[in-house]
Amino acid sequence: MSATGRRVLLDLLVHGPRSRIRIAERLGLSRASLTRVARELVDGGLILPGDMLASASRGRPAEELHLRPQAAHFVGVKVTAERVYAVVTDLAATVVDELEIALASPAEREVVDAIVGATRTLGDRHGTMSAVGVGLAADVLRREGEPLVASSPLLGWSAPVPLAGLLAERVGVPVTVANDVHALTAAHHWFGSGVDHRSVVVYGVGAGIGCGVVVDDELVQGAHGRSGRVGHTRIARTGRPCTNGHSDCVHSFVSMPAIEANAGVAPGEYASALERARAVDGRERAAFAAAAYALGAAVAETVNLLDPELVSLMGEGLDMLDLDPTAFDEGLTAHLEQVPRASVRIDRPPFAFGLYARGAAATAIRELLSV
């Protein structure tokens, strides 16, 4: 596929069906060039001609072009310390199938075998995949153009792992690997409420906390794959310990393990802490209120630094916002620097854990269409 063909396909993917005239104007193409590229994409089965639209000026009606989502399928994988969660999406990142594989351990070989097994199983169901995307809690950088997992404390990987290369050798299609929150952000920018925003911040809250950043329509990954590491930013002076050996960071209040510890329940008993917080105004509820305030403070510092058009809060660990939304607003307002609260647009899109895997698939689509 030509570079111009990828640009046209990307425009239809993100913005939906539109007339040839609008596509040509948006991408700065001549009508002759667009006609040639459209023929290439139609012949390749990637787009379909659609309705004839009345032209705003006199002349022939303009033909609308449509993406053909079923033209390609992708595997997206989210890796945790306990399981591999995989989905199949079409070219429009719509999930059409999913499966889970439990991990005996998060060791490198176990993870690779599980991802390969999931890809082959899904390929048997849906045919050959165009590419595979993997998201995990890790620092991911590029070395000689290839993604490399520099480290993943959650998985216990302290040395670099060429995960993309190891997988590509066995599955036989291109593989891209990304930080899970970065992948979630990429998908949100293309397919969620981040569409048509040039600057977006996505907070992912769960076992940890991180954020993905889009500036001028580009996902910011950083020189070492570490952008968005807000978890260990210090926001208080209470002496609350962090597992990394310091105190009073965002992680020590907001992460689900921190809420468990601050609520006085055993590790893994987050659901129990949440149930008690809903029932009784005691230590458990105070832990969730402190988490909400700390998250608001963290978001404020991000707004101070980046001035994004939109901040989206996502993840499985946002129950504190339901229990005490006032505390979040208090933390946000207290830490904003000369920015009116009303000018900060924050949303909380519907979330399911599978969105991480869908985000990984979106990174594979993004890589395929990169110009």
Chain-wise SSE layout:
Layout: H1 3-15, E1 18-19, H2 20-27, H3 31-43, E2 47-53, E3 62-67, E4 73-79, E5 83-90, E6 95-102, H4 108-126, E7 131-136, E8 139-143, E9 146-151, H5 163-171, E10 175-179, H6 180-191, E11 200-205, E12 209-215, E13 218-220, H7 251-254, H8 256-263, H9 270-279, H10 283-306, E14 310-314, H11 319-323, H12 325-335, E15 346-347, H13 354-369
Parallel strand pairs: 4-7, 7-10, 11-14, 14-15
Antiparallel strand pairs: 1-3, 2-3, 4-5, 5-6, 8-9, 11-12, 12-13
Helix pairs in contact: 1-3, 4-5, 6-13, 8-10, 9-10, 10-12
Plain-language structure description:
- The protein has 371 residues and is an alpha/beta fold.
- The protein folds into 3 domains: 3-70, Winged helix-like DNA-binding domain superfamily/Winged helix DNA-binding domain (Arc Repressor Mutant, subunit A); 72-185 and 354-369, ATPase, nucleotide binding domain (Nucleotidyltransferase, domain 5, 2-Layer Sandwich), CATH 3.30.420.40; 196-347, Nucleotidyltransferase, domain 5 (2-Layer Sandwich), CATH 3.30.420.
- The chain has 13 helices and 15 strands.
- It has helices at residues 3-15, 20-27, 31-43, 108-126, 163-171, 180-191, 251-254, 256-263, 270-279, 283-306, 319-323, 325-335, 354-369, and strands at residues 18-19, 47-53, 62-67, 73-79, 83-90, 95-102, 131-136, 139-143, 146-151, 175-179, 200-205, 209-215, 218-220, 310-314, 346-347.
- A 5-stranded mixed sheet has the order 6-5-4-7-10, with helices on both faces. Strands 13-12-11-14-15 form a 5-stranded mixed sheet, with helices on both faces. The protein has a 3-stranded antiparallel sheet with strand order 1-3-2.
- Helix 1 (3-15) crosses helix 3 (31-43), helix 8 (256-263) runs antiparallel to helix 10 and helix 10 (283-306) runs parallel beside helix 12 (325-335).
- The longest helix has 24 residues, at 283-306.
- The radius of gyration is 22 Å and the shape is globular.
